[in-house]
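Handout, tutorial session.
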Amino acid sequence: MLMGNREIQSILDRHSIRPSRSLGQNFVTDPNIIRKIVRLAEIGPTDQILEIGAGFGALTCGLNEAKQIVAVEFDRYLIPALKETLTNAEMLGKTELLHKDAMDIRWSEFFAMRPGQWKMVSNLPYNISSTLLIDLLDHAPQITEILVMVQREVGERFTANVGTSNYGIPSVKAQYWAEVSIVGQIPPKVFFPVPKVNSVLLKFSRRENVEKVNPEVMWRLVKAGFGQRRKMLRKSLKNHIENTAFSSAGIDPKSRPQDLTMENWVSLAIAAGGGRKDEHKQQ
């Protein structure tokens, strides 16, 4: 059961729900978009799905082929509507509802109680999307596939190429942990309320063999470099590495952070003391 505009307006009215701008709430009202998301997510009967920002269940209902769903929703006013939707769709039995702020979840503890591999499929609230995705890439290796709807500018930052204005910390993070691409364009008219920005579908496929480097060292350098992106690296990183590290890594110290590929950052981190290990451990 997929909900269109009429069904969505009905549930909003019955539960006196008004979308919260402060929570970044924009609800999908076009069932064709839900079908597209589900198709791209390639959900099978053995899949475990994490959905963050479940709202009142418009997307959740499209995940019905999955084995198990964990639907996270922070807004307490939406929980009764979400339960009603899942009950009507006969999905409440295989859906775990979590009334939590996803930014407060400790993912190591979350997955210790929910073993196995997971996919994440979500229409993320605009106000947390970048920070949350970086957190998941760093700390939730159990999630092997991510398909999310985000603001177009966010998608462009994660998929940006080296040397471009959008290339930054999210780009390096994404390209270290995963293969990432924009797989769909979403117009504003499919949401209620209609946002003033365009959205995209962003897909991550976690890499099985990441470069063996100490991520803590690497991310410290990346953060310091992009924190002063107009400066040459020999200046922005002077308190973090020795000058000899640049030559060891084969990098011109006059380079700026946006000039370095993800592989360059790995080499620089190794030269700075974040050397290769026999077995890489994710944070």
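The second record follows below. Compare its token runs with those of the first.
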Amino acid sequence: MNGLLSPGKYFADGNFASAEGAIMAGCRFFAGYPITPSSEVLERMSRRLPEIGGHFIEMEDEIGSMAAIVGASNAGLKSMTATSGPGFSLMQENLGLGIVTETPTVVLDEMRAGPSTGIPTRVGQGDVMQARWGSHGDYAPITYAPNSVQESFDLAIEAFNAAEMYRQPVIIATDQVIGHLSESLVVKPPEEYTIVQRLIRKKREEDSKVFSFSDDFIPMFIPGTGFKGNVDSLTHDERGYPSNEASVEKEMLEHLIGKIKKNEDKIIKYEEYEIEDAEVVIVAYGITSRAAKHAVKLARKDGRKVGLFRPITLWPFPEAKIRNLGERIRLFIVPEINYGQYSHPVREYGCRETREIHFPPGEIPDYKIILKNIEEVFP
């Protein structure tokens, strides 16, 4: 069916699902460098893209990979790369390039144990703050965190749609267990998916601009198609030309950040489980949320009023929802495979006592540890 994955039910892993979801979304260019545990995404794209008229390049490193997908997107193709923590670190400068040039791309970061090269084959969630603050300067990232094979497919489509709608790189912060986990994947017919298509201007008019600081969205242009414009990494005006004026910097940054802030209600996704009467709320994402949900089920059987809030969109942070919960509950519990990253904004915006559970990188979260912490706050 036009090279797309046929509708049906599959038994697949998260890396397979991420690659096929990207293809369903229209990805036709992939540049990457092999790195555990995301290499299977690269391998599948190397086979699949040539089958459907797309392009695959194995780059010399992650710096070049990020540069290549920014370039390919500016040439008109939906583009993507996949990596893990050390490679994600190397991509940060060119991630900023994608932000300032408003270039839609998707970066899949499959988190593994760290710091540095850590345990390449084991799970981690240590890139959460890097996804938010990794590149220098001010910007507002969009970051999704799947917790299943199905979400790996669905959120790949969501990420490409968001990249097109808000014209910026979008991050998928999955983790090693989700990437290598095999379970059911249901693929619908292509016409049942909402796919945001790339809007491209073909011809320049005298008053047209490369960027628009007053609108959330302006169609891109492709060099060599009759449109004269400038795309620059420096602070620039709406024509794309560099400027040393602080007033231009202010206008540009307020646009880059504002287009996300104004649309947070459309972007932010989350799952709530047993929240209505909860006195204690667990905030968990990725593979950790699956262990947390099981712990909540067991605690509920014993009459403990605990619920689960799972951010599907890590960034923008679901500030309004966490504030509302913080006004009526006793405690937040934040289990993570790190030593406290997402717990910081939960504590800040929830204005509530927050208990952290630190699973060491490399360790799959144990629901019994989460359950023990729940029992300790319900004497």
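Points raised in discussion: The mean pLDDT is 95.
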